[in-house]
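From the pipeline queue, job 12 of 40. The input is one protein chain; the requested action is below.

Action: predict structure.
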Amino acid sequence: MSDSDARRGFAARPGAAERWVKTPDIARPASADQFTARLTIDVTPELRRCLKLAALQRGLTVAAMLRALFEREFPNGQGDAP
């Protein structure tokens, strides 16, 4: 198979477009559907270690722990607004 054949297979359109469009999406856990934005922050290596250790001790991922923290800090989703 040539390079062009491999690329065409990767980006090729499905043969039966109607069936492909009507096929339901793969079911994801409910929590994955709730979070649609990615947030990147810079932290010191020491703070990163602290976050990872705290999450491990609580049986959570760092992401889940920080989501819970943000939800407690900003319960109405409006920042500091009442």
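Job complete. The two ends are 62 Å apart (CA to CA).
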